[in-house]
Amino acid sequence: MKKLIPVFSFLLLTLTVSSQNTYKISTDPKNAQVLIFQGLVSKSDLKQEKSFDWFSQNQKSYIPDSNLVNAMKSTKGKVSFLIFGGTWCDDTQFILPKFYKAQELADFPDSSVNFLGVDRDKKSIGNLSAFLNITNVPTIIAIKDGKELGRVVEYGKTGKWDVELYEIIK
Length: 170
Prior knowledge:
The protein is α+β, with helices and mostly antiparallel strands. The chain has helices at 5-18, 43-48, 53-60, 66-74, 90-105, 128-131, 161-169, and strands spanning 22-27, 33-41, 79-85, 113-117, 139-144, 147-153. A six-stranded mixed sheet has the order 1-2-4-3-5-6, sandwiched between helices. Strand 1 and strand 2 form a beta hairpin. Helix 3 (53-60) packs across helix 5. Mean pLDDT is 85; it is low at 13-19.
C-alpha cells in the first residue's frame, strides 16, 4: 500500500476527468434528510451547500495546531492529501472543516487536497475506497513522491488527529 501512485494517479486522474460531483438525498437515523456526496468534492461545494451548517460552525471554533500549520507550510508542493469522508458522518463533519482551516492558514494549495465523498457503506466512485482499504471516515492520507506517508483514521490513535497528521508530514 505504500507504493500507490502509478495506479492511484491513474484512478484519481480518471475520476477528475470523468466524474461529476454526484449526490443523493438520504434519510438519517433521526429522519432528517441529508445529502450524500460521492466523488470528488471541492471545499467550495462544502462551504456553499446551505444544509451543511456544520462546516462553518466547526471551522469557526477551531484553533489549528501551530505545528501542523507550519508543517503544511513547509511541505507545500511536496505533499498532497487524499481525504475520504462522508458528508453524512458526524466525525467527518467535525474534522474536515478543521483540516481545511489548517490548510487555509498554511496557504496550502487546494490543488494538493482531494476530498472523495463516500456513501454510508464507504463505497466511492471508481472503487478507490476499496482499493485503498478505507473502512472508517474520515481517513486523511498524506502522499509524497507517489507513496503513502501515513494516514489518520477518524480521530487517530490518540484522539488528536491534527497532532498525528503533523507527525506524519513533519
